[in-house]
């Protein structure tokens, strides 16, 4: 009995790891063309090749790390608070998950977006791009360029998306005897993802411009506020929301796939270890 309990305890930690990896791979591979279109609209150069393999191979550890830390934080803090404070726990869990996930996400974004906007004829692998960035610009200004702006972009997104997703799921459970299907969770994720994406488009735009800038060391404007001010001065509010349509569409579709696959995969994993 003791060994069975240990297996179930381990499974409770591995379940979000497995489900997050599956969900991340599914949504990134499915919706990558829309992300490429969004990057093209936000950049000033155009795009050449997508770098789908980079995203596909990195999405699994990124989302697995996010959901493992998200669920672990929830399990620690949620029993300590009253139900109406649950959104605060979800925000805390999301912030921890996003910060850790960015350790993988930022180098991936650097390689991916430079592939998307590369106009030369020489083939460049993602590893080669990152090695070149490290050699010429260093770890912080090269491989992890835009780390802070990515965290700043992703935290507000998660502060909106995750609590809203949890709130919508709770509302459905309350009306359905505590039950929710993967499809219903997917619909909740679609709505939450679309709203969060639309609201945070300017932050995503700033992150894209910072990562794609050619002369990081000599350019003094590569901070979120100056970049957004410069864009606003050139193109107004419309410029701040460049790429909003494909971004919002991608996250609505992505939220549906991501959270639907997550709940379904988690359910399969949990049922297997409950046998």
From TrEMBL:
<dbReference type="Pfam" id="PF00153">
    <property type="entry name" value="Mito_carr"/>
</dbReference>
<dbReference type="InterPro" id="IPR018108">
    <property type="entry name" value="MCP_transmembrane"/>
</dbReference>
<keyword id="KW-0813">Transport</keyword>
<feature type="repeat" description="Solcar">
    <location>
        <begin position="180"/>
        <end position="268"/>
    </location>
</feature>
<dbReference type="GO" id="GO:0016020">
    <property type="term" value="C:membrane"/>
</dbReference>
<keyword id="KW-0677">Repeat</keyword>
<dbReference type="InterPro" id="IPR023395">
    <property type="entry name" value="MCP_dom_sf"/>
</dbReference>
<feature type="transmembrane region" description="Helical">
    <location>
        <begin position="46"/>
        <end position="68"/>
    </location>
</feature>
<feature type="transmembrane region" description="Helical">
    <location>
        <begin position="88"/>
        <end position="106"/>
    </location>
</feature>
<feature type="repeat" description="Solcar">
    <location>
        <begin position="85"/>
        <end position="171"/>
    </location>
</feature>
<keyword id="KW-0472">Membrane</keyword>
<keyword id="KW-0812">Transmembrane</keyword>
<keyword id="KW-1133">Transmembrane helix</keyword>
<protein>
    <submittedName>
        <fullName>Jg9588 protein</fullName>
    </submittedName>
</protein>
<comment type="similarity">
    <text>Belongs to the mitochondrial carrier (TC 2.A.29) family.</text>
</comment>
């Amino acid at each position: 009995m003791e060994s069975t309990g240990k297996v179930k305890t381990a499974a409770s930690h591995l379940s979000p790891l497995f489900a997050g990896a599956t969900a991340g791979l599914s949504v990134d591979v499915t919706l990558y063309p829309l992300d490429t279109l969004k990057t093209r609209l936000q950049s000033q150069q155009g795009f050449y090749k997508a770098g789908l393999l980079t995203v596909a191979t990195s999405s699994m550890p990124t989302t697995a790390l996010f959901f493992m830390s998200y669920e672990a934080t929830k399990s620690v803090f949620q029993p300590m608070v009253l139900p109406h404070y649950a959104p605060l726990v979800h925000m805390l869990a999301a912030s921890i998950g996003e910060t850790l996930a960015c350790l993988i996400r930022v180098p991936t974004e650097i390689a991916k977006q430079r592939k998307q906007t590369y106009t030369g004829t020489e083939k460049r692998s993602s590893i080669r791009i990152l090695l070149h960035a490290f050699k010429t610009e260093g770890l912080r200004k090269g491989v992890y360029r835009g780390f802070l702006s990515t965290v700043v972009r992703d935290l507000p997104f998660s502060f909106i998306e995750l609590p809203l997703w949890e709130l919508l799921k709770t509302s459905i459970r309350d009306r359905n005897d505590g039950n929710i299907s993967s499809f219903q969770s997917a619909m909740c994720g679609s709505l939450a993802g679309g709203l969060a994406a639309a609201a945070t488009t300017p932050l995503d735009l700033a992150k894209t411009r910072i990562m794609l800038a050619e002369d990081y060391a000599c350019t003094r404007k590569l901070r979120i506020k100056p970049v957004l001010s410069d864009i606003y001065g050139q193109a107004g509010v419309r410029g701040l929301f460049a790429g909003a349509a494909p971004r919002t569409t991608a996250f609505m579709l992505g939220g549906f796939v991501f959270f639907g696959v997550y709940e379904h995969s988690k359910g399969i994993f949990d049922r297997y270890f409950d046998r």
